[in-house]
Specification:
The protein is of the alpha+beta class. 52% of the residues lie in helices and 19% in strands. The chain has four domains: 203 residues, no CATH class; 194 residues, no CATH class; 211 residues, no CATH class; 130 residues, no CATH class. The chain has a six-stranded mixed beta barrel. A six-stranded mixed sheet has the order 17-19-18-15-16-20. A four-stranded antiparallel sheet has the order 2-11-1-12.
């Protein structure tokens, strides 16, 4: 082993705690990158594997009704790989006790005696459908799990007001319902309240009056041809009331899954960058201290014939050693983090097929990032050491002159702290920057928590002032709402009207839902971006920023709304003026004045003149269960959803986010501790003689503690101040990236978040200085004073 390598090992052993602290920060950066990337790639690969094995469709074309024979014509069209015709119907579902009495389901037909050519199912439990004469169905796993269904249980869909008993043959997983939502305008999965089910086409057809007919065509096409093929199929199906095709990118479940993946991308870059950047700063500070302390040794080595290149590589070797150790440890930690991320996500989103990714290329990339960060951090100190001239090194360093600010009269301990911070401004700035990274991480985590809580609070407490949401299947006259107002325990019931529409503007379009909002309503509130209450005027459409960006509209523009379904054999459309933007958690709905919506759409679609598709109900204290029970016994009520149900579903969806936010706080505190420990230890080593001299002059350890604490707290506060604006920009960027059409948040950072982030950093600062102070307490004062840096 060469003498320089032996010296390097001894230096690392002497500074082993600094080495371990910086290695820990490096390992965290590598672990965040490796774990996040493995989790991201696992999710993406699991979706792709599930789509491939289950022949997930490339396009869906709904029709009013078409003969099943049309499928054979479509099979012969160019670029069509596979085609399946089926029926799909939204129905009420009655359930046996102790399950919820009524929920809503989508029942989909399966071909008799074979697997579907498109959108196949995976049997999780039970068996496929048996005899085509038996009333059996398959339940999608999320709904079955939420309602505790097993093969052999009974379930009761209602067709044309008639309850029909079915036996559950099996539990299945479907690529169409990985994210189990009812459709494109529904963003919150509620598997306890909505489920997909599959029945034999020869059993289902007569029940819905569609024997030998289909209401939907599903396609698989050659890569890149899905849009053109879907358009051609729509033209072929035009006589049968074909609607606009739904491409895979717009399919409800897939779109939410892909949107979630896209929203995670900023985390894959920013989080590791914060840790690895802090590691690079820490390496730079440690090696700068080494070079300063070893100037005489470096001068001797240069005078003894060691070339500048050897000195350069010697100090870079320390950075490389940290990079190697942190990279190896980080890859192992990242593997565990990736497994935890994937398991936590799988509890929320269960894919039909899992594809765990063991990606050596990601491990190599993570290791390379660690090496690059640590070598970059060591470059300037190493180059400085290589440029030392032997003659100058032997003379030692001239004492730095106090700056003007340091000459200001201050209390003794404060003056010493200010002097030390100003004496080496680059070290101070580097330390503060490392602390700022930790504070930024905690502020980002807190901003996500605050924004999410604010969005949920507004949706649950401010905008919605009711206790129960009701959905009618099909729509009813408002007389039913009038009757509900007379029920015991009902404080107020107000009707709602939701009509599916396609919003179009300048060639861009989006499927959404138009919601009626009556003047004088007391149970719902709309707010503009400033937070002021607003009510739509006749002829006006109000919606959120997210939808406005999707169809490129500004207030004052006009937008065309078309009824987006043909199940009635009728059409309706309206041109509306775009009003002020709304502040919404669920970003898609368009709000119109209630009577205006009825006039422009409901009556043209032959709904009742005073049509309602649901109601919101406020109840007296203690009556929620009684009113809900009566709703479940009321004909036409497909769903009764209590406030507690919504809260529970939101809690389930946000559980992973809350865990991740807590994890970010923990990592931020750990990073602050490691960085501050490294710098504090360096500073205490530099000031050993100074502190020993103070002790020989009669200053006790309490005074030394006060001196060091003041300086470190000032450093922590400086780092916190430097973090505020960059953290704000990073949080805004990441929040905007994380917002989706299904769930959107306005950026909110509470004073508590700032205070907690700074306080956590200061606690880490106080904890990090303890090992160094313990060493100072044990110093041999005489030896320390004689020691020459």
């Amino acid at each position: 082993m060469s003498r320089l390598n032996l010296k390097l090992l001894r230096d690392l052993a002497h500074a082993r705690w600094q080495f371990l602290a910086i290695t820990f920060v490096t390992a965290l950066g590598v672990a965040m990158y490796h774990g996040s990337m493995v989790s991201y790639e696992t999710q993406r690969a699991s979706y792709e594997l599930s789509y491939e094995r289950l022949a997930f469709g490339d396009a869906w074309i709904p029709v009013r009704r078409a003969p099943r024979a049309v499928v054979r014509q479509i099979e012969r069209m160019p670029n069509v790989v596979a085609v399946e015709g089926r029926t799909s119907e939204i129905v009420e579902i009655e359930q046996e006790k102790p399950r919820r009495p009524r929920v809503i389901g989508r029942i989909i037909s399966l071909p008799s005696g074979r697997e579907p050519a498109v959108n196949r199912l995976r049997i999780i439990e039970g068996s496929p459908l048996g005899s085509r004469s038996r009333r059996e169905l398959l339940l999608e796993q999320a709904f079955a799990r939420a309602n505790n269904y097993r093969p052999g249980d009974r379930i009761y869909p209602r067709f044309a007001g008639r309850r029909v008993r079915f036996r559950v043959a099996g539990i299945v997983s479907s690529a169409e319902f990985i994210y189990p939502v009812m459709g494109n305008v529904f963003s919150l999965p509620m598997p306890e309240l909505f489920g997909a089910m599959f029945a034999d086409e020869q059993v289902l057809g007569p029940l819905i009056g569609l024997s030998g007919q289909i209401t939907e065509v599903c396609l698989r096409t050659r890569p890149g041809s899905e849009a053109s093929v879907a358009a051609a199929v729509k033209r072929r199906l035009k006589p049968y009331g074909a609607e606009e095709p739904i491409l895979r990118a717009e399919q409800a479940s897939n779109k939410l899954l892909q949107s979630d993946l896209e929203g995670n991308k900023p985390f894959l870059v920013i989080m590791p960058a914060l840790f690895l950047g802090s590691a690079a700063l820490s390496v730079a500070l440690m090696l700068a201290r080494w070079v300063q302390a070893q100037r005489g040794i470096v001068g001797f080595l240069r005078a003894s014939g060691f070339p500048a290149r050897a000195i350069l590589f010697h100090y870079l070797g320390a950075g490389a050693a940290i990079g190697v150790a942190g990279g190896i440890a980080g890859i192992g930690m990242g593997h565990l983090i990736g497994m935890w991320f994937a398991a936590a996500y799988e509890r929320v989103i269960r894919t039909p097929f899992a594809a765990p990714q063991n990606r050596p290329d990601l491990a190599v990339t993570a290791f390379a990032l660690a090496m690059v960060a640590c070598l970059l951090g060591g470059w300037l100190p190493a180059r400085s050491a290589a440029r030392i001239v032997p003659a100058e090194a032997m003379r030692g360093m001239a004492a730095s002159q106090p700056r003007a600010l340091a000459r200001i009269r201050l209390p003794l301990f404060l003056a010493i702290a200010v002097r030390n911070m100003l004496r080496r401004p680059m070290r101070t700035l580097g330390t503060a920057s490392g602390v700022a990274s930790a504070v930024s991480l905690m502020i980002i985590a807190g901003t996500f928590r605050d924004s999410m809580m604010q969005a949920i609070s507004e949706a649950m407490d401010d905008f919605q002032r009711y206790d129960i949401t009701v959905a009618f299947v099909p729509e009813r006259s408002a007389n039913i709402v009038t009757a509900m107002n007379a029920w015991p325990g009902v404080r107020l019931a107000e009707g709602t009207l939701d009509i599916p529409v396609r919003a179009k503007h300048n060639g861009r379009e989006k499927d959404t839902v138009a919601m009626g909002f009556a003047r004088g309503t007391k149970l719902r509130v709309l707010r503009d971006m400033s937070g002021a209450s607003i009510v739509p005027e006749p002829g006006q459409a109000l919606y959120s920023n997210v939808l406005a960006k999707r169809i490129l509209t500004e207030p004052g523009d006009t937008v065309r709304l078309d009824y987006s379904q043909n199940i009635r054999g009728r059409s309706a459309s309206a041109v509306m003026k775009v009003g002020p933007r709304l502040r919404l958690m669920v970003a898609l709905p368009i709000y119109m004045e209630m009577e205006d919506l009825r006039r422009r759409f409901a009556r043209k679609l032959q709904m009742p003149p005073d049509a309602v598709t649901g109601a919101v109900i406020a109840v007296e204290p203690g009556y929620e269960r009684i009113v809900t029970s009566r709703l479940h016994r009321t004909d036409g009520v497909g769903l009764a959803l209590s406030r507690a149900d919504v809260t529970r579903q939101i809690d389930e969806v946000t559980a992973f986010a809350n865990t991740f936010i807590a994890f970010m706080y923990l990592l931020g505190s750990a990073m602050a501790f490691a960085i501050v420990y490294t710098v504090t230890d360096i500073v205490l080593w530099e000031r050993t003689r100074e502190l020993a001299t103070l002790r020989t002059l009669g200053y006790g350890m309490g005074s030394v503690l006060r001196l060091v604490t003041i300086e470190n707290i000032m450093m922590g506060l400086l780092g916190s101040a430097l973090a505020m604006y960059p953290a704000y920009l990073l949080a805004r960027f990441m929040l905007e990236a994380a917002n989706t059409e299904g769930f959107t948040m306005l950026m909110v950072t509470s004073p508590t978040t700032y205070a907690l982030s700074v306080a956590s950093t200061l606690v880490a600062v106080l904890a990090a200085q303890w090992p160094g102070l313990r060493r100072i307490r044990r110093l041999d004062l005489a030896d320390a004073i004689r020691t020459r840096e």
